[in-house]
């Protein structure tokens, strides 16, 4: 996947995608580049480091800086998240030409305001153009509700222009819930792909002439090992209750790419803190582990665009290789 970089010139745009945890950032990036590179799960904080996904179209390289969700101190302690995760967000913003803020409009608790930490971060990089992406709009019943959400999140201002009737609203509603510097707003459903192409066109229109950092056929700067481990971690987050997935140690034991056969073969070890948790993951007759394995295989086929053979083996911490191997 890593190639010698040719000094071809074209157009390049670096995009940082930020938002509250679980707002759909990774799913959106995967949709735009049409590969499942960014591991996505239905639990918070699947993305714990800066991952780049790359897409090449119309002589333009779109480079996504996939950032972790905004993390509070309390969450960092609860989920034992790496310190680096907190700084990764600001770091990626400094490399960005444009910033996309993903907001989940289907979450009734947060739909009408942007997280204060996020507004603070946006204010720190006010000179970098940013745009708002309202995600999961397919789940909203009323379109009128959508207009009121847009007013709240933009403080009634888009691209420096006030929205119709927003003066009346702001007089009535003194609470500042949004960010007034967005240059554009997009309505999408990352899951179904609706509206995603408009974002792609917008990004291409923001690209500048530059030397390409990556070859046109390169789609990530992550190693295959990292991509496989992240895909397994994301599925454990989906399938297991509460904090269990965060206590597992996942590592690649074997990897081979058979070019002629268009096949990837890999084996992943999962170290569990106790035998009880290993049994819980395995499920009755190994059924749950089989299910996880088949979902991971399907995700990885989407990543590598090749057929995938994967084995996942559970081990118990501090025990000799008394493997709970489920085939």
Describe what is shown at a glance.
This protein is α/β, with parallel strands linked by helices and 327 residues long. Helices cover 33% and strands 25% of the residues. It is built from ten helices and twelve strands.
Polypeptide structure, described:
The protein is α/β, with parallel strands linked by helices and 327 residues long. 33% of the residues lie in helices and 25% in strands. It is built from ten helices and twelve strands. It has helices at 25-33, 73-79, 83-94, 116-124, 143-154, 166-172, 196-205, 224-239, 275-282, 287-304, and strands at 9-19, 51-57, 60-66, 98-104, 130-135, 157-158, 161-162, 182-187, 208-211, 249-258, 263-272, 307-316. Strands 1, 2, 3, 4, 5, 8 and 9 form a seven-stranded mixed β-sheet that branches. The protein has a three-stranded mixed β-sheet with strand order 10-11-12. Helix 8 (224-239) crosses helix 10 (287-304). The longest helix is centred in the C-terminal third of the chain and has 18 residues, at 287-304. The radius of gyration is 21 Å and the shape is globular. The protein starts with 8 loop residues before the first strand and ends in an 11-residue tail after the last strand. 37% of the residues are buried. The model is unreliable at 322-327 (pLDDT under 50). InterPro entries: G_ERA_dom, GTP-bd, GTPase_Era-like, Small_GTP-bd. One of its GO terms (biological process) is ribosomal small subunit assembly. Keywords: GTP-binding, Nucleotide-binding. This is GTPase Era, mitochondrial. It holds the Pfam family MMR_HSR1.
């Amino acid at each position: 996947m890593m190639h010698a970089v040719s000094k071809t010139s074209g157009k390049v745009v670096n995009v940082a995608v930020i938002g509250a945890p679980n707002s759909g950032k990774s799913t959106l990036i995967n949709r735009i580049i049409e590969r499942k590179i960014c591991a996505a799960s239905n639990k918070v904080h699947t993305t714990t480091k800066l991952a780049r996904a790359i897409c090449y179209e119309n002589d333009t390289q779109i480079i996504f800086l996939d950032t972790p969700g905004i993390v509070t101190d309390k969450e960092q302690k609860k989920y034992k998240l790496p310190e680096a995760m907190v700084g990764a967000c600001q770091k990626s913003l400094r490399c960005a030409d444009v910033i996309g803020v993903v907001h989940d409009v289907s979450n009734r608790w947060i739909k009408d305001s942007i997280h204060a930490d996020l507004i603070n971060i946006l204010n720190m990089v006010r000179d970098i153009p940013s745009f708002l992406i309202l995600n999961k709009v397919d789940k909203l019943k009323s379109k009128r509700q959508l207009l009121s959400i847009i007013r709240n999140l933009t403080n009634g201002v888009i691209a420096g222009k006030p929205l119709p009737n927003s003066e009346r609203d702001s007089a009535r509603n003194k609470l500042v819930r949004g960010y007034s510097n967005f240059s554009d707003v997009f309505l999408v459903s990352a899951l179904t792909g609706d509206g995603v192409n408009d974002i792609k066109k917008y990004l291409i229109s923001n690209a500048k002439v530059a030397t390409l950092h990556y070859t046109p056929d390169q789609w990530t700067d992550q190693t295959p090992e990292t991509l496989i481990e992240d895909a397994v971690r994301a599925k454990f987050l989906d399938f297991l209750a509460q904090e269990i997935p965060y206590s597992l140690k996942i590592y690649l034991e074997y990897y081979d790419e058979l070019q002629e056969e268009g096949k990837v073969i890999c084996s992943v070890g999962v170290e569990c803190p106790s035998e009880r948790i290993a049994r819980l993951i395995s499920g009755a007759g190994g059924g749950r582990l089989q299910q996880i394995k088949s979902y991971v295989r399907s995700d990885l086929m989407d990543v590598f665009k090749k057929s995938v053979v994967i084995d996942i083996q559970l081990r118990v911490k501090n025990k000799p290789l008394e493997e709970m191997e489920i085939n």
